[in-house]
From TrEMBL:
GO terms for cellular component: clathrin-coated vesicle; cortical actin cytoskeleton. Pfam families: I_LWEQ (PF01608). It comes from Uria aalge. Keywords: Coiled coil, Cytoplasm. InterPro entries: I/LWEQ_dom_sf (IPR035964), ILWEQ_dom (IPR002558), Sla2_fam (IPR030224). It is found in: Cytoplasm. Residues 250-279 are annotated as: Disordered. This is HIP1R protein. The keyword Coiled coil applies. GO terms for molecular function: actin filament binding; clathrin adaptor activity; clathrin light chain binding; phosphatidylinositol-3,4-bisphosphate binding; phosphatidylinositol-3,5-bisphosphate binding. Its main location: cytoplasm. The gene is Hip1r. The keyword Coiled coil applies.
């Protein structure tokens, strides 16, 4: 009992209550995230159109699918925890079981907090992206964080579960689904970013005649600069190749110790190879 690691911020008799509170808080955070995404979807349809609306809808739909996958994972994890407690506590109470396995319980609490925090951050990042005040990269990072935190929750649950547990199998399947949905968020975010950047670069519909002429001249200057730079790089490449051929050529050692380059092969019509002789 004395050697067992003690919690720094939570009393052992409170661990059981903390697990239930954190799992409930995580579920609530996910439900709130789903509601906020639905609100963002409605707002995006009212305030945007064309390519931007298409991109926003695709990103928000992928975020919604991810939230649903996380919600199912949390529910399955809760069922597995109840199964673990019931099969392992024996005559002890639920609170005593969590206190006895304090290190495992604290890991479970930490993992649950990470999942809820990741869901909240994802929604906030998606909101900023839709409003064009945030970065697409934030959304990608949040997706990776969610995948990592769900893996942490699965690992914490797996430690005490029976290998033959059906709930464990369901939890692992839910984890794979979360990873797949997180990858979909990353893919939709990247493709949407490319679409928006391409549209912003090539959209000249709102320019005046003077503005168009100015842009045209600036682009011509860039083209000439790039062509000049390209020509210079080609000359540099040719000189590098000459030096490479000179250093890589074969040399014959002379009697006086000097090295003479081997004569370059003459260009001509290649001779027909001799026919193989019969043995």
């Amino acid at each position: 009992q004395e050697l067992r690691p003690k919690s720094l911020d939570i009393k052992q008799e409170e661990l059981g209550d903390m697990v239930e509170k954190e799992m409930a808080s995580t579920s609530e955070a996910i439900e709130d995230a789903v509601r906020r995404i639905e609100e963002m979807m409605s707002q995006a349809r009212n305030e945007s159109s064309g390519v931007k609306l298409e991109v926003n809808e695709r990103i928000l739909n992928s975020c919604t699918d991810l939230m649903k996958a996380i919600r199912l994972l949390v529910m399955t994890s809760t069922n597995l925890q109840k199964e673990i407690v019931e099969s392992g506590r024996g005559a002890a109470t639920t609170q005593e079981f969590y206190a006895k396995n304090s290190r495992w319980t604290e890991g479970l609490i930490s993992a649950s907090k990470a999942v809820g925090w990741g869901a909240t951050q994802l929604v906030e990042s998606a909101d900023r992206v839709v409003l064009h005040t945030g970065k697409y990269e934030e959304l990608i990072v949040c997706s990776h964080e969610i995948a990592a935190s769900t893996a942490q929750l699965v690992a914490a649950s797996k430690v005490k579960a029976e290998k033959s547990s059906k709930n464990l199998g369901r939890l692992q399947e839910c984890s794979r689904n979360v990873n797949e949905m997180a990858a979909n968020v990353v893919a939709s975010t990247k493709s949407g970013q490319e679409q928006i950047e391409e549209k912003d670069t090539m959209d000249f519909s709102g320019m005046s005649l003077i503005k168009l002429k100015k842009e045209e001249m600036e682009t011509q200057v860039k083209v000439l600069e790039l062509e000049k730079r390209l020509e210079g790089e080609r000359v540099r490449l040719g000189e590098l190749r000459k030096q490479h051929y000179a250093l890589a050529g074969t040399y014959d050692a002379a009697e006086d110790g000097e090295a003479k380059p081997a004569p370059a092969p003459r260009r001509g019509i290649p001779k027909k190879p001799p026919l193989a002789q019969k043995p």
